[in-house]
Amino acid sequence: MTRTAPAVPGPTRTALLYVRVFDGHALTEPCTVVIDGGVIAPHTDASGARLVDGTGMTLLPGLIDAHVHLHGADTLAVLASHGVTTALDMATWPPRLLASLRRVPHLTDIRSAGTPAIGDGGPHARIPGMSKDAVVRGPREAGEFVAAQVSAGADYIKIVAEAPGEGGPDRETLDALVAAARTHGRKTVVHAATTGAYRMALDAGADFITHVPMDRPLHAGEAARTAAQGQVCIPTLTMMEGTAAAKGIAPAYRSAVRSVAALHDAGVPILAGTDANAQPGVPFQVEHGASIHHELELLVEAGLTPVEALRSATVLPARHFDLDDRGAVKPGLRADLLLVDGNPLADIRATRALRQVWCAGVEQVAGV
Questions:
Q1: Rounded Cα–Cα distance for residues 221 and 289 (Å)
Q2: CATH C-level class of 62-320
Q3: Packing angle between helix 171-183 and helix 139-151, nearest 10 degrees?
Q4: How many CA atoms lie within 13 A of 239 on its CB side?
Q5: Treating both helix axes as pointing N-terminal to C-terminal, what angle do 220-228 and 195-204 enclose, rounded to 10 degrees?
Q6: Looking at residue 130, what is its pLDDT?
Q7: Helices 290-301 and 250-266 sit at what angle, rounded to 10 degrees?
């Protein structure tokens, strides 16, 4: 049974004392951080505040999972309890369900693509309950699809690419979807789990490519092109690992890891995303919340430093998804915060040692 966090009161004034802060590059000396309402205060005056002794602890920005699939309000509570204060949803339907999850007080804040664009013959068309509105049958339907998603409140457009001939949108349709999204001022996130799909995402100029190929590693030239075009990658190594294990294809996961290493070496921005879901019919169901900590560990194993891994779940997704009010511990930003024992810059596994979590200044029940 899924456990949900109990109701919590609204934001209060809290002072975190003697805490070391991850500033995006290193840890500060022990200092005081004051939460005032829903934001980080511009001062360190602790008078009248509830005091929290942060000796020996690290204060992180709330984590941003850059690839999840939402299923209900209980999902938000689970995410919050594990320190995921912002979730970037990559496909949730119908629109009324998604609307019910936006701006839920005191829990994880979300952005979403709403319904994804898929072809009529690929694996995603066979997912139980997939919306019929997701199928885009040609470039002439692209504009109508994007306009409908924007009208429904989509923050960006998700497109599922498959290798040519495998049932996803063809090249012309993918190009038309990306172009229509730009017309509406929306960025595009393209699913690409094979090298053929990845190449289509490169050619279309997608803003984000989510997943990495499992059929073979990306070579240096493909990684360099990704960097040169200013594209951003969300590898979802947790999903790649789980899928490879479920299908008994361990070399496929090793290919994914090598692709991440190539992208990292080329200077491609890498964001932490888990593909957390509870969707029947998908290759692997990734646990919400706890999986972000595993994703950080896998990114470090793939070659990122602990600092780079932390940036992949804080400042970088905030920057690339235009979330200007979060992603760092700075005065005036949302008080999305994560207090952990130890030093995750020395050992990334320390992010699991949750002591307290705040979503916009509201303390959560950590580690549910």
A1: 35
A2: alpha beta
A3: 40
A4: 27
A5: 30
A6: 87
A7: 70
